[in-house]
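W.,

You were right to be curious about this one. When I first looked at the sequence I had no strong expectations either way, so I just let the prediction run and decided to look at it fresh. Below is the sequence, 127 residues in total, followed by the output.
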Amino acid sequence: MNKKKKIEPLTGDALLSKVKQLETLSKEAKARACGYFTITKNDVERVNMMKFSNALIDAAGIELDGKQDGNGRGGRSASYRIKVQSNGNLLIGAAYTKQMELHPGDEFEISLGRKHIHLKQMDAAAS
């Protein structure tokens, strides 16, 4: 009889979090701990590394076949629309900053029009 209880394989953020917690273990031990194994009818445990690897790729948002948005990752694409948040802020997401090849610490001068905002990148040498 199957002595080891089969657990539901982790996916998404739960999988990424668990793998990070288990960083000192081998790949097979991580796959097993995340539920990527089966028990054969002879009670032999088999780790399914291919399903584990594919689940990690999906969880990381990497699109291997199909259209990518240019920054090498899947996930949300830029819609070029934003809404004012309940606290009055406008948030420009990472999809836009990646597309513009901006980096943490880049500075901008803001000038306001009647219904538009213009951002002018500050020269790093002038700072």
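Here's what jumped out at me. The two ends are 71 Å apart (CA to CA). And, maybe more interesting for your project: The first strand starts at residue 37 and ends at 39.

Coffee later to discuss?

I.
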